[in-house]
């Protein structure tokens, strides 16, 4: 099944966080084309449930990892690609890529995982929720998506109307059909008090419900490479903390800040570094 320089590489996109055409979709397409031009096969997966009846799970670490790794298996059934692969993801897709890197050896030992690359990954849920306990703190544009995820991943345990204000519920509904750029514009200037009935209580509940989906920080068997924009609304310090935890566990880790890049420009800024990392990972793996 292997064929020369055609090497599997999985890209886990932000899925529902950007499903409409636009500036950001064009950047992702450009990165994908650059990878193809460099000789990589690109298998793109999505969240469990996208394209099928019902709501998608969104944040579910193991489900994300399994879907990503299964995309490599599927690619090998339809194209002459090698069994060597890297997990690559952006934003919440970075969360998926890290989970895949953690589980790759045990879930797919017949494949040859060479490493993980995550750009602006969503990590450190507990720290994010701790900061959001402040009613007057700016609202994160990711919050409405979490309001859609929790009823799916925790059926019977989470009811959005118990935690969100009527306006907050409108945003949660809108998140089912809008990409992150649109939601970011909609929440500009809003605070946690605008969307949560009791921000502190809601964040306590969120912390408990997302505990099992924190990015694993025990030693990864293969290298991990992280990049994050220094002007990202999703603070780069979260990725810095994750990098430090991975280093402490003995993981082969590199972190590259992208000066001045925000959540929507970091992918294009970091693209050359991603390609360099992949070339090294496949060369060393």
TrEMBL record:
InterPro entries recorded: AB_hydrolase_fold, Lipase_secreted
Transmembrane regions: none
Gene Ontology BP terms: lipid catabolic process
Top-rank taxon, per record: Bacteria
Signal peptide, first to last residue: none
GO molecular function, one term: triacylglycerol lipase activity
PANTHER family named in the record: LIPASE 5, PTHR34853
Protein name: Serine aminopeptidase S33 domain-containing protein
């Amino acid at each position: 099944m292997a064929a020369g320089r055609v090497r599997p590489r999985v890209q886990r996109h932000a899925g529902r966080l950007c499903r409409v055409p636009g500036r950001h979709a064009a950047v992702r397409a450009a990165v994908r084309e650059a990878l193809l031009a460099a000789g990589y096969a690109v298998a793109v997966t999505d969240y469990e449930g996208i394209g099928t009846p019902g709501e998608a799970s969104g944040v579910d670490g193991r489900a994300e990892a399994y879907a990503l790794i299964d995309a490599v298996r599927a690619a090998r059934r339809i194209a002459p690609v090698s069994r060597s692969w890297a997990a690559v993801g952006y934003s919440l897709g970075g969360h998926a890529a890290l989970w895949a890197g953690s589980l790759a050896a045990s879930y797919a030992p017949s494949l040859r995982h060479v490493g993980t690359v995550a750009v602006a990954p969503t990590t450190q849920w507990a720290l994010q929720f701790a900061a959001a306990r402040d009613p007057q703190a700016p609202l994160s544009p990711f919050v409405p998506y979490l309001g859609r995820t929790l009823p799916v991943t925790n059926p019977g345990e989470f009811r959005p109307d118990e935690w969100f204000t009527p306006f907050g519920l409108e945003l949660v509904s809108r998140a089912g059909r809008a990409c992150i750029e649109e939601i970011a514009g909609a929440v500009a200037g809003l605070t946690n008090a605008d969307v949560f009935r009791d921000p502190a209580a809601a964040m306590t509940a969120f912390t408990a419900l997302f505990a099992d989906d924190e990015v694993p920080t025990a030693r990864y068997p293969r290298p991990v490479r992280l990049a994050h924009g220094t002007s990202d609304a999703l603070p780069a310090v979260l990725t810095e903390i994750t990098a430090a935890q991975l280093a402490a566990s003995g993981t082969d880790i590199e972190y590259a800040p992208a000066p001045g890049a925000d959540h929507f420009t970091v992918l294009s800024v970091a693209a050359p570094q991603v390609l360099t990392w992949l070339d090294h990972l496949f060369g060393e793996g």
